[in-house]
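Data deposition worksheet. Section B asks for the primary sequence of the deposited chain exactly as it was used as input, without tags or linkers unless they were present during the calculation. Section C holds the resulting structure in token form. Section D is free text for depositor observations; keep each observation to a single sentence. Incomplete worksheets are returned to the depositor.
Section A, Depositor: J.P.
Section B:
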Amino acid sequence: MRVRVGAVGVGVATTLAAAVAVVSGRALAEGNRVAVVLPLAVAAGVAVAVLALTRFAGYLLVMLAIRSCVDLFKISGPVAGRVPDADAARLLDPSTMLAVLFLLAAGLWLAARVRAHGRLRGSPLGWAMLLVGATGLVSALGAAQPQPSLLEALRVLTVVVMFVVLEQLMPDSAVLRRVLLACYASLVLALGYTVLLSALGHPPAEVKGNFTRISGPFSQSTTFGRYLMFMVVFGFGIYRFLSRRLRIALGVLLGLSLLFLLLTNTRSAILGTALGLVVVAVLHRSRRLLALLAVVAVAGPALFPAVGDRFAQLADERAIGGGPTGNTLAWRVTYWTEIVELADRNPVTGIGPNMTQRETDEAKRPHNDFLRAYVETGLLGLAAYLAMLLLCLHTARTALRRAPPGSLDRGIAVGFAGCAVAFVAVSAASNAISNVVTLWYFVAFAAAASAVARRPAAPVTRPSAGALSPSPPTALRS
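Section C:
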């Protein structure tokens, strides 16, 4: 009977694959991008849905591993500003479909956990994230254009649910290590794609003003830059606690990541990475890392003059209206004074997520997540967002106190501390909360730090000379 059922399953899968290949092949010949991507997305969605319903933990790892490359199949393209039919196109994006599937699968899994255990594990940071998601949904319901606002609230909600789910799984040290490996598997895919296309002479990039900026597998270079920021900072945090083979592999990934981070020419991500690595270096008491930062700071602009030119723009007297050239910092300050008045319409719940760019002549996002929280989700949303940021820092501090010296837990605590500081700094002058794909990895690291923070406090001992070597029970091994 099992053989017969298996044969039927294989037959159905083969038929589905053949049908998808035929439909996508014809669409490719006709140059119809939507018709090419949609059947592939549906087929992948069915496969992922089966995995989600049968092996949820495995499904979660697959999602983390592949999410960095999902935007390669994006139909809508960059949707900043008021782009005709952009909202309808975003509904067909594979990332949107995966988000809906993830929320459904996670909801069912969490409900089953409640039924089995009577309650879910929680933390103050988790509650703060839930408030951020709830205030976004409430604000979206009262927005002038509910559809795009609700879609944005839905995207942010996937980040919140990801943290809640991981918080249930992370107390298991084996799951924690698998989650971290899945996160860096996503980095392997992202860097591999970028290296391959660069070697073929067609580097994935976008042209903004006078600059060509590497965008990797993402639709925008700023998203790639912030993704690399989190990966680099956390990677340096855990590096010394890995097995020798994994240290070599991670070292290669970090070197490539630093290179492509500079080539994204994303000032906020570069500065955020530098700040996060300073935190990591101080907490690890690593002079080598500080020396590396100094070398990169000097050699980077020398090897890549565009990086120095990009930062030199901050001294320009001419502020160009949010464009890729000129003193964009001066433009930001001017823009902030204009959009803050939008909150006067509804200071309690705001004008709705993703609505600022639809209510201003500039048609741009606020480029300041604190201001955005206030304008788009009101005083309630701002309070929830500030609470989330403060509790990220508190979680990092608690994890640092609880983590035993010389253990992977210590690396997780240090790495997340650097990521948290970098995220707070970058949020002050960018749209970090809009890069949902990068936030998935940020909350994965946050959940790992939360798991460390909830463990019993380690006894205070002076580390020996060999404390930097990973210990077998706690080191992340291949």
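Section D:
The first helix runs from residue 2 to 30.
The longest strand covers residues 205-208.
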